[in-house]
Amino acid sequence: MKILVSGSTGLVGRQLVHRLQKEDHTVIPLVRQRSKEGVLWNPVTGEVDVQGMEGYDAVVHLAGENIAEGRWTPAKKQRIRESRIEGTRLLCQALAGLQKPPHTLISASAVGFYGNRGDERCDESSASGSGFLAETSIAWEETTQAAADAGIRVTLPRLGIVLSKKGGALAKMLLPFKLGLGARLGSGSQYMSWISERDLTELLVYLILDSSLEGPVNAVAPHPVTNREFTKTLAKVVSRPACFAAPELVLKIVLGEMAEEMLLSGAHVISSKLVNTNFKFQDPDLESALRFLLTPAASMT
Questions:
Q1: What does DSSP say about strands 39-42 and 47-48: parallel, antiparallel, or unpaired?
Q2: Which CATH number fits the domain that encloses residue 11?
């Protein structure tokens, strides 16, 4: 297959490109500057090489501003929204106008769609939540309608917290936990719906190849945990105590709205759609996932 990928240099994109190339698929990145190695797509300038997009079998759209870096200033929130909503709009309008459009678009979304739901179990049929992340995710997903209207199969994997020692949340936690300074966040009762990097990579490949799946698909492991459970399990795996708690008030003062929505809120997200498929998780529970990831021999190469 010929596959076009945005966000190909990101944490998820790098693993996906490597996995697809191992299976002899032709993978071309969407790039923001003209290059012989990629196809131009620049959401900031609105430039897109429509002709260069012709003839692909599938497009995987993973690009977007990092939501977990720094305080959410008004400018940061604008970049988050524009990178997802305007970037996806530019891509989907281009795909919709092709003479030979791809048969599949995999456009990443996030479990932030559900907002802060406490103990409520959320699957793909659940209503959206409220807050900045939920509102952004709703608009992000709606922007793909142009591609769907053009007859392209659109699948929206709603990504949970991606566990990887190469980056993301887990990589940031490792040093303090290894030093015995691991701490739960606030009350620790908020749910963390997660997925290992290797399961997410395999799931994205599965979504490309399985034409029966479309619309939202929760990209999460079968067993979400609370932050308290996550803290206890990670401490156990690294063989260190985790006796501290990061006070809610302090997190809000330091990180503001980002702390409220990303660290102190959560949703118990499951995937009803994946239950009825042949997809098999390699890391269905947190402890086994962490032990695999943190074993020196563990590698995605």
A1: antiparallel
A2: 3.40.50.720
Q: Which two tokens stand for residue 44?
A: 């900031």
pLDDT at 129: 95
Does residue 251 come out as left (phi exceeding 0), alpha (psi in the -120 to 50 range) or beta?
Answer: alpha
pLDDT at 301 over 70: no
- The number of folded domains in the chain is 1
Q: What is the CA radius of gyration of the chain?
A: 19
Euclidean distance between CA atoms 153 and 105, whole angstroms: 6
Distance CA 89, CA 147 (A): 9
In terms of residue numbers, what domain contains 202?
Answer: 2-290
pTM: 0.94
Chain centroid to CA 189: 22
Return the number of other C-beta atoms located less than 10 Å from residue 130's C-beta: 11
Q: Is 298 inside any structural domain?
A: no
**pLDDT tens-digit series, residues 270-296:** 999 999 899 999 999 999 999 999 987
- What Å distances lie between residue 270 and 38, 88, 173, 273, CA to CA? 36, 25, 24, 9
Q: Which two tokens stand for residue 53?
A: 């997009």
End-to-end CA distance of the chain: 21
Q: Report the run of H or E that residue 139 belongs to, with start and end.
A: helix 132-142
pLDDT tens-place string over residues 11-59 = 999 999 999 999 999 999 999 988 888 999 999 999 999 999 999 999 9
296 in any annotated domain: no
